[in-house]
Amino acid sequence: MTTLSLTRPRVLARTGLCAVLGANGALVTVLFAEAGPSAHPLISVGRLFGLYGALLMAFQLVLVARLPWLDRRLGMDRLTSLHRWTGFGVLWLLLGHMVFIAFGYAGLSGVGPVGELVTLAETTEGVLQAIVAFALILMVGVVSARVARRRLAYETWHFIHLYTYIAVVLAFSHQIAVGSSFVESPFARAYWWALWGGALGAVLLGRVVLPLWRNFRHRLRVSAVVPESDQVVSVYVTGRNLDRLPAKAGQFFIWRFLAKGRWWAANPFSLSAAPDGKSLRLTAKALGDGSASLRHIKPGTRVFAEGPYGAFTTMHQTKQNALLVAGGVGVTPIRALLEEIRGHVVVLYRVNKQDDAVLLRELSDLARSRGAVLHLLTGPVTALDAHGNVLLSPQNLSGLVPDVSDRDVFVCGPPPMTAAVLRSLRELGVPREQVHAERFSLAS
Residue 153 phi/psi, 5° resolution? Predict the structure, then answer.
């Protein structure tokens, strides 16, 4: 089989990001060299660390700006992962900046590094701002650790992350006040103003301007709330000019239902039907207070939706045929994808018991109408089939889908199930570029 696209969107986006970061890193190094050496070698090292840290901070802003071009190609999950690791890079670079600067000036003055740092904060403009910025970044880094992240509600975690923007402003003010490459070179000043302006402009565009414009343009409202089972509900949303909304099957929105007691809650839910230009549908299971209260929303309620987001779409299909693997309520984007995806399709839907199979009748009808094959797998991830194989083992997958290595595989479900499927696909030798799984993680 030949691939459907010569240039894969994900590869193009990753290459572009690396090229932009690399080019800026090289330019920052040149600007640093042109500024000349400092009075002490440790001070020079510290300043270089600070410049690289400032560059990475600006890069981080672009990663969380939710720019449509990047999000459609990499997905919020991968962008969040990049944001997380560059965040730790920023933290270590700024720590190195502070330590080397303090030890460098201490070597010149004969005072201890801690005392020298206190003196610099008291006597040098911009240093105190830098220390406060580092403390804020350290706090954000702590709450970003997986252990802390699991214990925090999304709204709390998001609110704490807003302090990053204060840190950015403080760090830039420090750079303006004492940065040698900034102060002494007109070109360097223009470059850093353009870099920070572009990064903050990207955040303003992706996080504020686009959501406000789209919601003003489409005027979304709830048109119907339909219970699918005791724990699952579908919400239908209508609006104006929905044919102009650039949403695709497999994507998700961050929904806010502007009703009393709910307007502050932001919940990411996937589309459970391919957009048809007339309405949008989300289907959610009662897993928390936000999703459980959806069945009480009244038709006519205004909706503020951010998105569409996600790279879990047919844009990334590289083969003529596909395998769709769903688990539990993770079937919602899979069911939507089944409407749009090309070629022959096999669907594997795993649930603990048949009563848990959300949208099964719709899925069956849709599979029948387009000639797809649907397998319902019931039981825990570790359950055995009639032949003694684990449901999602390599043996069972290859038995159900003999040509799996020649298909794109889209996986959406609970983390243990997704991990089991990905392990089996690796053992079967399915190329990474043909495997598409997204956890829909939210960056700050």
Answer: -70, 150
Q: Show Cβ contacts of residue 72 under 8 Å, excluding neighbours closer than 6 positions.
A: 9, 310, 311, 313, 315
- The answer to whether residues 411 and 422 touch, using CB atoms and an 8 Å cutoff, is yes
- More confidently predicted of 425 and 442: 425
- Residue 436: strand pairing partners: 410
Determine contact, residues 190/196, Cβ cutoff 8 Å. Answer: no
- Structure letter (DSSP) for residue 125: T
Q: Using CA atoms, how far apart are residues 426 and 156, in angstroms rounded to an integer? A: 37
- Kindly state the tokens that stand for 231: 């724990």
Fill in the amino acid letter for 57: M
Q: How far is Cα 254 from Cα 77, in angstroms, rounded to an integer?
A: 14
Q: Amino acid letter at 353?
A: K
Other Cβ atoms closer than 10 A to 414: 14
Is 219-309 a domain of CATH 2.40.37.20?
no
How many Cβ atoms sit within 10 Å of the Cβ of residue 194?
11
Q: Are 227 and 233 in contact (CB under 8 A)?
A: yes
Please enumerate in sequence order all residues whose Cβ is within 8 A of that of 229, keeping only pairs 6 or more positions apart, or say none: 355, 358
Of 384, 385, 392, the residue nearest 414 (C-alpha): 392
Chain center to CA of 357? 28
Strand, coil or helix: what is 359?
coil
Q: How far apart are CA 290 and CA 70, in angstroms?
A: 28
pTM of the model: 0.84
**Assigned architecture for domain 314-437:** 3-Layer(aba) Sandwich (3.40)
Rounded to the nearest 5 degrees, what angle is found at the Cα of 128, between the Cα atoms of 27 and 183? 35
The CA distance from 271 to 249, in Å, is 7
The backbone torsions φ and ψ at residue 333, rounded to the nearest 5 degrees and listed phi first, read: -70, -30
DSSP H helices, 238-312, are 289-292
Q: What is the pLDDT of residues 152-196, one digit of tens each?
A: 666 666 667 777 778 877 787 777 766 666 667 888 889 999 999
Could you state, in order of their start, the residue ranges of all structural domains in the chain? 9-208, 219-309, 314-437
Question: Could you tell me how many residues make up the chain?
Answer: 444
pLDDT confidence of residue 133: 83
